[in-house]
Specification:
The protein is mainly α. 75% of the residues lie in helices and 2% in strands. Helix 5 crosses helix 7 and helix 5 runs parallel beside helix 8.
Length: 190
């Protein structure tokens, strides 16, 4: 049903998705979708959770056992590498993140906790690098991590809007390189 929900969201937008259309697309009854998810918001959160889980699996397979900034660079490469793939779910993911602004507090809180988990991951990468003696331009690693995640999410948002509008395409390789360079420039020379 997650795939059916993503299919409907791609066609009708996050706000345009209905439980009835998801059920029809999945070939099941509306009652089953309601039984499994309860409501539209819960289904949207399930989709968002599934997208994060899929990304985490792909990242872990590609990342190996790197630490610190190298692990952060791997994360950046995985994030931007998925943007240009034809089967990318970036647009659905970005739309669901944006939807949290207009939903109730519970939905927004669930999405905020997902953001917090991503920021915590980036902060852990920075902390691992700092424990090796690296100094950063800002001692508040939570702020640095938030800045990095917000930058990456903002780029994904621009990419998604441009893809939907079929306007200017972003050179994802160039943007990925710029993000890696930005992270490198956050290091203070000894």
């Amino acid at each position: 049903m997650i795939n059916a929900a993503m299919t409907v969201m791609r066609a009708k937008g996050v706000g345009g998705m209905t439980i009835a259309e998801v059920a029809e697309t999945a070939g099941v009854s509306k009652g089953l979708v309601v039984h499994l998810y309860g409501n539209k918001q819960a289904l949207q959160l399930a989709v968002l959770t599934e997208l994060r889980t899929d990304f985490a699996k792909r990242f872990q397979q590609a990342e190996g056992h790197t630490v610190g900034l190298e692990r952060l660079r791997s994360f950046i490469r995985a994030h931007f590498g998925s943007l240009s793939k034809p089967d990318s779910n970036t647009q659905v993911f970005s739309a669901l993140l944006s939807e949290a602004i207009f939903q109730d507090q519970e939905f927004a809180a669930d999405v905020a906790s997902m953001n917090d988990a991503t920021i915590a991951f980036v902060r852990e990468c920075l902390e691992a690098e700092q424990s090796r003696g690296t100094r950063f331009i800002e001692s508040d690693l939570d702020s640095l991590a938030t800045f990095i995640v917000a930058s990456m999410r903002g780029i994904a948002q621009v990419f998604s809007i441009n893809a939907t509008a079929k306007t200017k395409t972003l050179d994802t390789q160039k943007v990925m390189h710029l993000c890696e360079t930005m992270v490198d420039r956050m290091v203070v020379s000894a």
